[in-house]
Specification:
With about 250 residues, the protein is α/β, with parallel strands linked by helices. It has two domains: about 30-80 and about 165-254, Rossmann fold; about 85-155, no CATH class. Helices cover about 50% and strands about 10% of the residues. It contains eleven helices and four strands; from the N terminus they run αβαβαααααβαβααα. It has a four-stranded parallel beta sheet, with helices on both faces. Strand 1, helix 2 and strand 2 (about 70-75) form a beta-alpha-beta unit. The radius of gyration is 18 Å and the shape is globular. The termini are far apart.
């Protein structure tokens, strides 16, 4: 029996999602606005949020806005600081990945049939790319190419613009679980997790052994267990704890 209703929004500028406004800068705040709009359309005021990478950053932004009952942030983006060199490094990383996908996409369905090839192709973002099915591997490639804002986001990162970092983390008042993959090559834990650990009140932190940047592919059972346990724990805290969290959020916002 399903325990939770799952809502999986597609972000603006991503394959299958709405267009990202061409005149708007690429920011976490703007992407979070779009998710909030989708929640309003569904009649959802608050929810338990789970996000990986950019999705993790958006989940934390939603928590800042008082929208989150709890957050599980899997290798969340936005933990770097302007001037520390991480923005340009990440931009260069993704630019390289896009070029590689563009060169090989025409043959992706054929070359992704071999588990060893999938492991090699996804080595920068997963430890066990061989666990991805050939069909899913081709779909990941297509989704990357279909992300219409990728080049704008890369340019924003290369320019080290502050809009892609997350500030105001001290405003978060809900339970947050920060999950850091052991072998994250995109957002290495030693460089990206410390600020989240310092600035998010009461944050819990766990390591994800033998996982890369996208841990749900490397160890789906582990990730699912952590999500369910974190949500259950936040529910077990009871109405009094939820009321206290809401009161603290209102005070900080004011």
């Amino acid at each position: 029996m399903a325990r939770y209703e799952v809502i999986a929004p597609t972000l603006p500028g991503h394959l299958g999602g709405p267009d990202y406004p061409s005149q708007e800068p690429i920011t976490f705040a703007r992407s979070t606005d779009a998710v909030e709009a989708q929640l309003r359309a569904l009649g959802v005021e608050t929810a338990h949020f789970v996000g990986n990478s950019m999705g993790g950053g958006i989940a934390l932004e939603l928590a800042k806005r008082g929208r989150a009952r709890s957050v599980v942030a899997l290798a969340p983006a936005g933990g770097w600081s302007r001037g520390d060199g991480e923005g340009p490094r990440i931009g260069a990383f993704f630019a390289k990945q896009i070029r590689m996908i563009e060169r090989t996409h025409a043959w992706s369905e054929r070359i992704m049939r071999r588990p060893g090839t999938r492991r090699l192709a996804f080595r920068e973002i997963m430890r066990h790319g061989e666990l991805v099915s050939p069909a899913d591997a081709a779909a990941i490639s297509q989704a990357a190419l279909g992300c219409s804002i990728s080049r704008r986001a890369i340019q924003t990162l290369l320019a080290d613009e502050a809009e892609l970092t997350i500030d105001g983390l001290e405003r978060i008042a809900c339970p947050v679980l920060l999950a850091t993959p052991q072998f994250d090559r995109v957002l290495p834990g030693p460089r990206h997790a410390p600020r989240f650990r310092r600035e998010i009140p009461g944050v819990q932190s766990v390591a994800l052994p033998d996982c890369g940047h996208v841990p749900v592919w490397d160890d789906a059972k582990l990730v699912t267990r952590l999500i369910v346990e974190h949500i259950d724990a936040s529910l077990d805290a009871g109405p009094a704890a939820q009321l206290d969290a809401g009161a603290r959020a209102s005070a900080v916002t004011a």
